[in-house]
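User: I'll paste a sequence; please echo it back and then give the predicted structure.

Assistant: Echoing your sequence first, then the prediction.
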Amino acid sequence: MFESVTIKDIAKALGVSTSTVSRALNGSYEIGTETKKLVLEYAEKINYRPNPIALSLKEQKSHSIGVVVCEVANDYFSQAINGIESIAYNRGYHVIITQTHESFDRESANVKHLLSRHVDGLLVSLSAQTTDTSQYKYLLDKGFPIVFFDRAATDLNTHKVIANNFKGAFEATETLLKAGFTKIAHITNSNNLLISRERLDGFKATLEQYGVEFNAAYIKHCNHGGMIRDEVEFALKELLNMAEPPEAIFSGSDRLTISCVSILKAMGIKIPEQLALAGFTNSDVVQLFDPPLTVVRQPAFRIGQMATEMLIKTIESKWPVEEFSTEKVDAELIVRSSSQKI
């Protein structure tokens, strides 16, 4: 069994008190130069490392942040996590990452586990199934620091960092309309998510502005967000088998966009000749697809950084934080040939 070296072990070996060792390791001016040098050299020699659990109990802080996301393999979230870590580690915080796989039960279990690890705060992006946010409300009411990013809870008063989903959806739909497509379908995530509702609102607003009638039959919700391939395939087949099938699709999330490309290719549907496509994704390889994809790309890395900065500021505040802000960051539309009429 692994046994770590303690301050007591160092004190015993050097014939000094544990308080002397502790002060020397902490750089206290109360300890003489020779004693400090002796302790530090011995600690280095035996590869002494402070026990993080003991430190957390002493300081009532673990210097760790819990992160709740749907899936690390998702391009958006992997980039956001890189942003989170870039700030957290520089500020002396470790990051513990958990995945919900779009399950409310798993999200609740993850939050409970992170709290049992005594994290100092949470960065949360809600699962597609989550409608009950009472566990977060309870924690916020107790003054526990939580920041939502990307998928935020509308009913909770805390810091949030989100993309301008309405604008991103508007611009993607507008690109398809300007290319000459009027029969446009929208494949999106669960309606439980605020991002789904905002992107659908942006889609509808564009149609209205361009005088195109909204067709509710062209809207398909995939409640697992593209994580179940059959769900996306079923939605696409329903659309393509309609009496008046769509000419183009606007897909509302990272995984849905990539799934649509893969499934349409397997079905022998040519993009954009038979069906044009534009959608949200942060994949770094979509310009290499045949054809290259028109995408709405979110600044995921920056969103992760902003959320982490807000959380650490809340954690380290000497006074209870009572004023919160929602930061809305613009996404970037990148037009390529998948949305062009041929």
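The longest strand covers residues 64-69. The two ends are 68 Å apart (CA to CA).
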